[in-house]
Amino acid sequence: VANEGGKHWTVNEVRALIRIWSDKNIQQQLEGTVRNKRIFEQVAARLQKFGIDRDWKQCRTKYKNLKHEYKSVKSAQDSGSTSKSMKFFNELDAILGHCTMEQASKSDNNESERPPEWTEAKSEKDSIG
Predict the structure, then answer these.
(1) Would the pLDDT of 61 be above 90?
(2) Does this model's pTM top 0.90?
(3) How distant is the alpha carbon of residue 28 from its chain centre?
(4) In terms of Cα–Cα distance, which of 30, 51, 53 is closest to 103?
(5) CB 3: neighbour CB atoms within 10 A?
(6) How far apart are the first and last CA of the chain?
(7) What confidence tens digit (pLDDT) does each residue in 40-60 have?
(8) Nearest CA among 10, 19, 61, 17 for reference residue 37
(9) What's the rounded Cα separation, in Å, for the pair 123 and 15?
(10) 18, 68, 103, 108: most buried by Cβ count inside 10 Å?
């Protein structure tokens, strides 16, 4: 089923996206903000280095879809069902499995944290290498 994002993501493209997503820096930025266009522009730029031509909107859509699919598989598993599964579940579980609990406790006391805009600028240099 083609979505408005254009052509289907290949397995390698999704792997590359997950590899970038698994970067602690990217995860922290994504956790801290809803307005994440600039983060996905960085992600798209890093995919470009792998020879993958995706714009930030495609990256964000794929990220949201993977996250949604992961959550539905995870909740099915938590309720005892093993019939639901997905490709890349283990990779996503490594990224998302630990932060769901952390996020729940973090959201109670994150007033002390600095806004993500302050930390975004320094991460630009990390993505050059």
Answers:
(1) yes
(2) no
(3) 10
(4) 30
(5) 12
(6) 36
(7) 999 999 999 999 999 999 999
(8) 61
(9) 22
(10) 18
